[in-house]
Design brief:
The chain is 51% helix and 15% strand. It has 156 residues and is an alpha+beta fold. The protein has a four-stranded antiparallel sheet, covered by helices on one side. Helix 1 packs across helix 2 and helix 2 crosses helix 3. The longest helix is centred in the middle third of the chain and has 41 residues.
Length: 156
C-alpha cells in the first residue's frame, strides 16, 4: 500500500521535500514491517513507521501526535524506506513542471504573436481612426453597467 492515498496533498509533497532535503536521520529497521527514524523539522521529531499499516505509524510532531494523521515527517520516512516511490513522485512533479513550463511558453508565444499583429494593425491606422476606436471602447466599457432602455422588457 502506497502512502499517497492516505495522506493530504500538502503532507505528500512537503514530505517529498523533506526526503529530498535529507531531513530523515537515524533510520533503523525494527523488524520486517517497522522502522524508527528522526526527522529534522522545527524540532527533531521521532517517527515510527508500520509499512504494512502506515496509518498506525506515529510521529511526535504537533500535527500528528496521538492521531492517525499521516504527516509530512511520516511521508519523508516512508520515502526513505521506499526510494522507488519517492522517485515516482519526483518524476511526477518534474513532469508537471515541464508541462507547466511548456504551457507558459505557448502562452507567451501567443501573447507575442497577438501583440505583433495588433501593433501592425495600429500602425496602419490614422490618428483619427485610433481616437475614434478609443472613444468608442471607452463608451462601451462605461455603458456595460448601465440599463439598456432598448432591451425588450417582460412587461409587455
Amino acid at each position: 500500500m502506497g502512502i499517497r492515498g492516505i495522506c493530504s496533498y500538502n503532507s505528500y509533497w512537503r514530505g517529498l521535500d523533506y526526503f529530498e532535503s535529507k531531513r530523515v536521520k537515524n533510520i533503523t529497521r525494527v523488524n520486517k514491517n517497522e522502522y524508527d527514524a528522526d526527522v529534522e523539522g522545527r524540532e527533531l521529531y521521532h517517527v515510527h513507521i508500520f509499512t504494512n499499516h502506515p496509518r498506525k505509524s506515529t510521529c511526535t510532531c504537533p500535527h500528528a501526535a496521538g492521531k492517525s494523521i499521516v504527516c509530512k515527517h511520516k511521508v519523508a520516512v516512508y520515502f526513505s524506506i521506499f526510494p522507488e516511490e519517492a522517485q515516482e513522485a519526483i518524476d511526477e512533479r518534474n513532469s508537471f513542471y515541464e508541462d507547466l513550463e511548456e504551457r507558459e511558453r505557448e502562452y507567451d508565444k501567443k501573447v507575442e504573436d497577438i501583440t505583433k499583429y495588433y501593433e501592425e494593425y495600429v500602425d496602419s491606422l490614422s490618428i483619427e481612426e485610433i481616437k475614434t476606436m478609443l472613444v468608442n471602447r471607452m463608451v462601451d466599457s462605461y455603458m456595460e453597467n448601465e440599463e439598456d432602455p432598448y432591451e425588450e422588457d417582460d412587461y409587455y
